[in-house]
Every structure is written in structure tokens, then in C-alpha cells.
């Protein structure tokens, strides 16, 4: 596991002082393109047009780069069926969230389309995907920005898209990763940006799920864990019975107040919602295993709903 930086070791800013525009500009100047959204994501979305409805719901215009934003939908939307939302890449650097959402559409979505309307937004933060970043260009975390008049374009455009469907979301799967860079980069950057102290440096080794404190749906979360267990390992709790500083609700599951924290998982009033977390830096997995685990999380949850 990557060694963490101390709270005062980040190379931008002055300890004890929040970042201003100058520090944010300095941070942005350090970011570079490391992979292609067009080649790794958009090309796969284009290939889905033969069997699904692909719609552009917005566009991010970031200096020299423009990023179209897409949702993929099963055809013949039927208001009498429950609508399922899958989101990936809210944190753009979390690769299997993006690729897992696409893989689900490619391999599994059609078999569930008789029972559900399915909407997939596979890469909410494409600039973050290309630069391998948690934040957007304004040093804002989109996954803390799902609220009215959001300053994060990524969050605001997705909320506008989902609200524009005119259909209640019944279940929402938000696909994420927890990586070693959380300690080597993102938590220290957060401490520097906000002039606070990061006390949680825990990175669980394995998959875990995050339910909503207000609607935990323990059996739904358990079904997801059982499904994922067939393809990869589940993260054990730490010595205090916690994951990332939060007390375990059940094996492999913690709960967060999603709306209170303005998380993507709280953007609707879905009866069932979960945030998945895989650990791609584990010696027990590889990139493909992480993608398959994300798909297993979705299918496990959908199979549970169908069993009711």
C-alpha cells in the first residue's frame, strides 16, 4: 500500500490556510492528460448504438478540451416498469467504475430490460478520467456536489439529465474505487485545500458497499455482497470494526448519509441505492477482476429486486 503523506506535506498552499484562486490555478497547472476518454470510453459508447439509445446530455468545455457527456438507455422506455440508474466515473480516476458501467451495458443490461428501464451514465467526469483525478478543473469534488445550484458542472448536468427523464429512479448503483492514491495524493490534497486535518487513512483491501443511512435496505446490500463474493474478495473491517473510519453495518457494508453529504448516490429518492467500492491496488486482483466485480454488484442487486 502506498505510503501516505502527512497533512502538511502537500506541495501547494500554506499549512493552516485554505486555498484561494492562485493555489487552485497552481494545482490545475500540474495536471496532465494520461489517457484518452475518446478512445477508452466514447468509442465503446458509440459501439452500443445498434442496441441501445445513446443520448448526449451535456458537454464540458475545459480550455483546449471539450468533453461530451452521454447516457445509454434501454429502448422502449415504459413508465410502468421500474427505472434503474447506473453511474460511473463520478470520480474520474476510478477506472472500474467507468469500465464496469460500460461492461454491464455490453453484457447484461438487455437481459434485465424486460423488467426494468435502465439508464447508464458511464463517465460523469471525463476530464477526471483523462487526468486520473478525483476533482474537476476547479478543484471541486463532484461526489460532494449533488445539490441545487451545484458549482460542479459534472454534478449539475447529471442531475438535470436525470430530472429530465420525468421518471422516478427505483434503484441506483454508483460505481467507485478506493485506491492507494487516496493516501498518496487525494487526502493530502484535500487537507491542503481546506486547511484541515485528515484523520482517516484507512484503505480497505477488497470490495465493500456503502448504503444510505436513511434507506439502508440491508438485505439488498447483502445480496450485492454475496454476488460480488463469487468473483472477488470482500474487504474485512479493521481492528475497530470499521471501514474507512465508519462502523460496519454488516459484513462488507457501511452506511453514509448520502443526501446530507451531497453524494451521487443521494441524487434521487430511489428505494434501493448503493455505492460500490473496489480496491484495484490489491495484490489479489487485476483491472479485469475489478470490472467484473462492478458488474456482479449490479446484477446481484437487480436479482434481489426481482426476487421480491
Automatic annotation (TrEMBL):
Residues 33-308 form the Peptidase M14 domain. It holds the Pfam family Peptidase_M14. CDD domains: M14_REP34-like. It comes from the Bacteria. Belongs to the peptidase M14 family. This is M14 family metallocarboxypeptidase. It comes from Thalassotalea psychrophila.
Amino acid at each position: 500500500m502506498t505510503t501516505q503523506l502527512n497533512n502538511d506535506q502537500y506541495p501547494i498552499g500554506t499549512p493552516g490556510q485554505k486555498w484561494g484562486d492562485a493555489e487552485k490555478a497552481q494545482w490545475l497547472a500540474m495536471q496532465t492528460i494520461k489517457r484518452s476518454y475518446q478512445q477508452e470510453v466514447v468509442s465503446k459508447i458509440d459501439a452500443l448504438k445498434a442496441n441501445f439509445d445513446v443520448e448526449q446530455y451535456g458537454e464540458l468545455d475545459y480550455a483546449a478540451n471539450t468533453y461530451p457527456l452521454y447516457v445509454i438507455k434501454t429502448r422502449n422506455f415504459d413508465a410502468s416498469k421500474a427505472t434503474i440508474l447506473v453511474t460511473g466515473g463520478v470520480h474520474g480516476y476510478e477506472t472500474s467504475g467507468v469500465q464496469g458501467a460500460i461492461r454491464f451495458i455490453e453484457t447484461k443490461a438487455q437481459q434485465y430490460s424486460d423488467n426494468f428501464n435502465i439508464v447508464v451514465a458511464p463517465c460523469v467526469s471525463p476530464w477526471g478520467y483523462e487526468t486520473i483525478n478525483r476533482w474537476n478543473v476547479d478543484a471541486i469534488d463532484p461526489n460532494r456536489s449533488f445539490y441545487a445550484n451545484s458549482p460542479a458542472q459534472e454534478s449539475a448536468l447529471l442531475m438535470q439529465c436525470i430530472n429530465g427523464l420525468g421518471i422516478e429512479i427505483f434503484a441506483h448503483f454508483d460505481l467507485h474505487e478506493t485506491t492507494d492514491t487516496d493516501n498518496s495524493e487525494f487526502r493530502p490534497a484535500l487537507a491542503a485545500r481546506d486547511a484541515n486535518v485528515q484523520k482517516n487513512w484507512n484503505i480497505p483491501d477488497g470490495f465493500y458497499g456503502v448504503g444510505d443511512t436513511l434507506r439502508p435496505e440491508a438485505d439488498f446490500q447483502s445480496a450485492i455482497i454475496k454476488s460480488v463474493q463469487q468473483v472477488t474478495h470482500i474487504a474485512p473491517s479493521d481492528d475497530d470494526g470499521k471501514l474507512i473510519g465508519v462502523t460496519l453495518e454488516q459484513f462488507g457494508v457501511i452506511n453514509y448519509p448520502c443526501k446530507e453529504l451531497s453524494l451521487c448516490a443521494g441524487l434521487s429518492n430511489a428505494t434501493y441505492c448503493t455505492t460500490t467500492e473496489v480496491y484495484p491496488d490489491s495484490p489479489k486482483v487485476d483491472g479485469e477482476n475489478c470490472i467484473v466485480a462492478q458488474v456482479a454488484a449490479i446484477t446481484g442487486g437487480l436479482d434481489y429486486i426481482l426476487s421480491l
